[in-house]
Each structure stands twice: as structure tokens, then as C-alpha cells.
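Consider this pair:
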Amino acid sequence: MVKWLLVIGLVVLVVLLMNKVGRQRAVGRQRAVPRQPEAEPKVEDMVRCHVCGVNLPRSEAILSRGRFYCGEEHRRQDGA
């Protein structure tokens, strides 16, 4: 009976030690991987189409004679 208690105690001790070592390794891996900063969202000015009034990013707008348009068709409609 004493043998069985000793064997069970050793098994429990080994399992506890393995869990502790496993947690330490996991923490070490987390520290080893540098955290990359999150990319800031690109903020862009919005402009209004001179014909229909829709707002769109400046990079997508068409600029003609100082006026912004949402597409080539509206630029032609305005005659600019």
C-alpha cells in the first residue's frame, strides 16, 4: 500500500513540475516575439462632387478647373 502511495505521489509531483515548466516556456515565447505596433488608419480629406454633391476621398475624385467630381461623366456634364 505504501508503494502505491509513493508512486501516486511521484506522478503528481512530475505532472505539477511539467505544468510549471510548460507555463514558463509559454511566457518566454510570448516575450521573445516582439509586438508590432498597429498601423494607424490612413486619414484622407473628403471632397464634394460639384454636380451631385456626393462626398468622396480626394484621391478618388477628379479635379478639373478647381472643382471636384465623382466621375468623368459629371465632369463632362458640368462643362468644366
About this structure: Strands lie at 46-48, 55-57, 62-64, 67-69. The chain has two domains: 1-36, 46-78.
